[in-house]
Amino acid sequence: MTDTETFEPIIIGFTCNWCSYRAADLAGTARVKYAPNVRLIRLMCSGRLDPTFVLKALSGGADGVMITGCHPGECHYLEQNYKALRRYMLLKRTLAQLGIEPGRVKLVWASAAEGVHLAAEITKLVEEIRALGPLNWPTAGDGTFPGELGVEMNTHEEVAA
Amino acid sequence: MSGNNGSGKPKFAMYWAASCGGCEIAVLNIHEKILDVDANFEVVFWPVAMDAKYKDVEAMPDGSILLTLFNGAIRNSENKHMAEVLRKKSQILVAFGSCANEGCMPALANLSSKQDLYDTVYDTISTENPDGVRPQTKWEVPEGELEIPEFYPVVRTLDQVVPVDYYIPGCPPESHQIAAVIDLVIQVLQGKAELPPAGSVIGAGTSTVCDECERTRNIKHIKEFTRIQNIEVDPELCLLEQGILCSGPATRSGCNALCPQAGAPCIGCYGPADDALDFGARLMSAVASVIDSKDPEEIDRILDGIPDPAGSFYRFNLAGSLLRASKSAWFGNGK
């Protein structure tokens, strides 16, 4: 396992076009510093967040996932952020049964004006996940699993190709 | 298409790995159509129906079996060995049934570590095992060395072990779908039809069970999840709308919505619909969407009505899902 001191977590961040993506933009133009570990992906709305995206990130090598959206009551599409909240809450219960620490997936509300708040949340999550250590899900990486299976781990897509 | 060396008829095989035997019953359930199988194929290997040894299959020339229906998941080294042997010997290898496609019930063991599974089986209150002996893959006896298959920590699907040509989903596949596939293969043999593109799911639809379900659907507002034994189920209305966790929105069509039509919720045995990458994620997405609350505390209370989310959303699909297994199954209890 990578030493916690030198381990740089990879975090996939899903942002909403109307709030958190602009908050990240604002943080950038205002030169607010935040940890470079997060890779932001822009969605039109947090309601677009299919739990598949989170599972794909974790199974593909991410150490954590940050889901961001407009504050409750402020959704550009009326109430899709509540849908994101419900999916997040259900997904967390399932992930817990699969042994994934609750701290690895986080939901944060951030308006377009909250660049500083978003930057602080990102930095906080990076430190929390650094403390948890790498996830190293066996389906990620070069396709070999060093454990007892000792076999190549093809995926459905590779077989179809 | 060859594969008919010897008797003149093309060769057929069916094998069970980690499975229950239901797939074999489903094949016999095609009734008189089984005579067409016999008329058109020479059955060379089918452990549940005839006597044949592994060494007989191992001795066959590569590619000499035209069609192999492989049911069952890959639980141990014996399953893996036979998957590799049958891949080599078969021109067309079909993942037959939910276990071979996506893990099914055997893969629910992927929620637990190998150590916990062994403890459950070999360390119960009714087990006489004072030394805590666990299965050994090799054992010396006066007559020589005995070997039993190695138990893998993670159950895999067939195509996670060898390349697969076609997929027939279902637990078990519906008999009318099996009969249709057999008809198709016979027509291909007679030059009257073409095989579908390699990698296709055959003997099933592409849409969802909801699309085949005749129950009335309205906009759903779920305030509470329940089970069919707790309420008087409306015979016409969508089951999910009545608060019954139904897997219809994520499950591949092909069964004619048998369970919902009979008043029981779909449990997802036909696997993910064509465009669903992860069955459980698709279903979680659908189910969470229709919960009628904006208050985290109330949402939590409503979600308590689903006491086993991983078991409910991945009942048939854990090995075929994106994460495939729990952390403890992958890494053991140490991590």
In the CATH hierarchy, the architecture of chain A is 3-Layer(aba) Sandwich
The major sheet of chain B is characterized as: 5 strands, parallel
Total strands of chain A:
4
Q: What distance separates the N and C termini of chain B?
A: 51 Å
Q: What is the CATH first-level class name of chain A?
A: Alpha Beta
The Rg value of chain A, from CA coordinates, equals 17 Å
Low-confidence stretches of chain A: 150-161
Q: What amount of the residues of chain B lies in strands? A: 5-15%
Number of discrete helical segments of chain B: 13
Please give the oligomerization state of what you see: heterodimer
Share of β-strand residues of chain A: 5-15%
Which structural class fits the helix and strand makeup of chain A?
alpha/beta
Helix-strand topology string of chain B: EHHEHEEHEHHEEEEHHHHHHH
CATH architecture of the largest domain in chain B: 3-Layer(aba) Sandwich
CATH H-level superfamily of chain A:
Lumazine/riboflavin synthase
Domain count of chain B:
3
- Return the average pLDDT of chain A rounded to an integer: 88
- CATH secondary-structure class of the largest domain in chain B: Alpha Beta
Describe this structure in words.
With 161 residues, chain A is an alpha/beta fold. Helix content of chain A is 37%, strand content 14%. Chain A has one domain: Lumazine/riboflavin synthase (Rossmann fold, 3-Layer(aba) Sandwich), CATH 3.40.50.960. Chain A is globular and about 40 Å long. Residues 150-161 of chain A have low confidence and may be disordered. Chain B starts with 10 loop residues before the first strand and ends with a helix. Chain B has 335 residues and is α/β, with parallel strands linked by helices. Chain B has helices at 22-28, 33-40, 54-59, 77-89, 98-102, 114-122, 175-189, 209-212, 258-261, 279-289, 296-303, 309-313, 327-331, and strands at 11-16, 42-45, 65-71, 74-76, 90-96, 138-141, 144-147, 151-156, 166-168. Chain B is flat and about 65 Å long. Chain B folds into three domains: 11-105 and 155-189, 3-Layer(aba) Sandwich (Rossmann fold); 113-153, no CATH class; 206-273 and 279-316, no CATH class. In chain B, the strands form three sheets. Chain B has a five-stranded parallel β-sheet with strand order 2-1-3-5-9. In chain B, helix 2 runs parallel beside helix 7 (175-189). Classes of the chains: A alpha/beta (161), B alpha/beta (335).
